[in-house]
User: Fold these one by one.
Assistant:
Number 1:
Amino acid sequence: EVGGDARTAAAGTAAPRAGELLGGVRTPAFTVLTSRGLPLHLRPEVWDKVLEGPHLTQLPIGDVLLRQESVAQCPKASEGCRGFWPHLTGHLTYCSFRNPRLGTSVHGGDAVCAVETTGGRRKVGPKELLEVQKVMRMDIVAAPAEEVPLDTSGARRMNRAVSRAGDWLKELLDAKAQDEDLTSFDWHILAGIQGCADVKLRQKACAVAAALPVSGFWVGGLGYEEDARGRAKILEAVGVALPAERPRFLPLNVGT
């Protein structure tokens, strides 16, 4: 079962190489998936006793959205998500736009995407994500992007996903650089790489994202019902097109 994979790659290839993420987590590495801030299958009290740390803990945006008010009102609100979930202290926190526990957790829309939460679908664009981050103070945040699986055939939707991901990314980066509430702590943005099964669109998305001051990338549209050959083709194209010195995150669904 794969929650996600953080990896760096050798120059000119899609192959992973050994490295460290933010000086703490060795890569390639799997994420530790959480549900409502709590690790799956393990009680927080025994987490560090069972797994050697530090870990890259994955907090799906659909989960943290529903805890935003509770975290903001907790006694240690200045510590963000770690003030509310103390077991996250000492570990890297990664806010993913996809939720690996769900087959489909991101839905396209006219203006912004919607994500699945336990309370139903919630619209999440750059504005909503930034408001969450002001409260949660997570280390790594995946930029919003419309998920387009490899079996999608509509050219309009594929091109829309790439262009909107770029626009939303620029909006996030501008706010991160200018908003005092977002410059007061250290955090990093991952660009979403979309483009379905179209290699040229994927390369375009990579070029746009790589030209911006992002810390890494998350490769979307994979881990659904595509075959291994189709997935390998896209990973090879993206791996070669992205800068080797910045990490890539591969979000998949449970069981893929």
Number 2:
Amino acid sequence: IARTWRHFLLPLVGLPLPPFAEDSIPETHGDTEYLLNVAIYEQSQIGWDRLLLGMGSMVWRSLQQRLDSENPKPLQRSANSWINSAIHQLLKFSLRCWKHRNRHIHGKTRQEKQQKALNAARDRIKTIYHSPPQLDPQFRSIFEIPLLQRLRLPLFAAEQWISLIDHQVKVTKHNLKILLRQHIPINQHFSQMEIEARKQTIRRQQSPSKDTPRKARYRAVQLATKAMRDKLYAPKPRQLPAQTRSTGRPYSRHKPRRQNDGTITRHLLTRRHPP
């Protein structure tokens, strides 16, 4: 069982397989071979990385119980205690690998951790400047501040700016999805226009006496314009002036005109209106 586990777990943690055959899958026969194949299959379905987290197949216990029954020496432990101890050792090994990875990536001391985080943030800033993402026009341009000035930012400001760019990228993708959902293809748009035109033609044929809204509005505007012109340019009614107190005769503006026979007549001047 240990040789089988080493064969599948060593590549997961980045360790090469040994060249000798002691850590390869052993050759078994009979019921032991059947149980070993079933355990390998079930663990492959669960995941070999999950075995480092304590999630293993129960067939391993049955296989260990089978091996214990074939051992001529009496054992002081059972298969249940063996599987519990094996899971405990796998968890300790996984925890050690995780701590070693953290020390290698993030550093051992606090200063080393901050320096590694700052280097990672600067590398990310360079990547953003060399391949800028597509952002909405509502956001400010990335190149408003030069790259050299952006690289001088402290760790907290650099991480804040990187998180801001990530958020803007998510918002841009979300807005693009909404626009694509609301977008109507041009061929579908023309198809809807043709359908609407057919419906209007059918309505006109069914009720030819009724005008379209556009024609009715045009006719109403023309009638209102004509009524306004008639009211504005209509001739005013002629009113005779009242009689004067001195002569008792009505006052009128008459222009004297001499006839051929020598008599003088007066013609009333008509008032001119604007055309």
Number 3:
Amino acid sequence: LIALRFAAGLFTGSDFGIQPGFFGERIFVVFTMFASFILLSMTLSKIVVLFNQIGQENVDHGEMMLQFKDFMNKGGVPFSLQQKVRRYLEFQYKSRKELQTRRFEMLDKLSPWLRKEVTVHLNRPVLTLHPFFREMPAELLPHACVIASSVLCAPGDVVLQTGQTQQSMYFLVRGKLQVLPGKRVLTESGAVRMPTAIILDAPNFICAEALFRPQWAAPYTVVCISHCELLRLPKNAFDRLQLEFP
């Protein structure tokens, strides 16, 4: 206990309880006190730098929000639309702190081959939700993973509308989508009613037919009901991939 109190006193600068008795102990005490001072200074400097970085990110985000607010006020943007923009920017900021959107920036810093390997690792579990990609040859699937790109959407964003010619397949990575069938249903009594909307939770996919048909018009409307991350697979890139690997 005496030795523990002595060691604690050296590192905290409090009362030692005992004093060094000969020359070697005095040298050890002086050296340990300097070492503890340096160690404490380095620890405090790292804490200060960390809080400064957090504060700077908050300041930058606040300035961006004010700039958007001034821009929308001068442009006469309706208040409801301003609220949607504000919520989306808040989501972007939160996602960036959670490394959900910063990964795109980090991937750009990698070499082309490393970027491809990481992208394949991230996109393979999503693409293989569909049976076509699940049964795709192992040497071809990585190329399909690379041509897919991420899209971030805000609540209320319309992904596609009924009757719209669609040239991409979408995989739902995060969030929820609402699918609104466009065709009316005729009941037995002769009344016309709209079909019930369908809620899709992640992981899922939509518009698979767009990849395999020359012209495909969406029979439904898809709306985001939460902040969503979609993986978009364009038909033109998919067709080029089929020509490269017939």
Number 4:
Amino acid sequence: WMQQSVRMVCACFLTEHLNIHWVEGAKWFHNCLVDADLAINSMMWQNAGKSGLDQWNFTMDPTGKAQDPDGTYICRWVPELSKLPSGHVHAPWLAAPGVLTAAGVDLGSTYPQRVVTEDLLALRQHNASALRASRALHADQWSDGRGYDLVIAPKGSTTSVDGKKVVLFTTPVLRKLGGHGGDQQGEAVESELLEGEERAVGDAVGARQRVSVVARASHGSVRGLR
């Protein structure tokens, strides 16, 4: 079992920083979580991967500073770091060698080295740029001209537009189509998303309560598209 915010941190890190397909994360969670639910798990991961019906309009700091500012959660569940000063718990690789030694932390031995060493913001911007470039390839068919995604509503999913294209919410960082040409706007939006992380997490948790909207999206059909 994992706390909700930790699940979202994992999803953002996998899709936005490691640039790994959301399906891989969905499969792993479904295999490991004791409360795994096919519809909810698929919906949340698809939205994290910026290809769902309700794309996440926020990002999560993979170091956990916003969610766990004093490191209490980390120290409880990662006891290898519990003796570090609170200022170094979120990023032990930045601590001085003497501080690590005093806390019994040996990077690469008692605690693993980082998966990536690149700047996290740069990694996220690279991912967004790649997504914009990919979406631009079919913008004439699957974008409404404002940068919003379009999808064909499956039979039985609506009361009036079955079989027709409907507009989906699309996160601002992806609405400007193209590759590197959209980076300047994308960087500004990224900063806004990071600053509003705490507020947006509450919205994302609320999205779980609206799961009926996409209860069968993972199987290619939607029952309650509104």
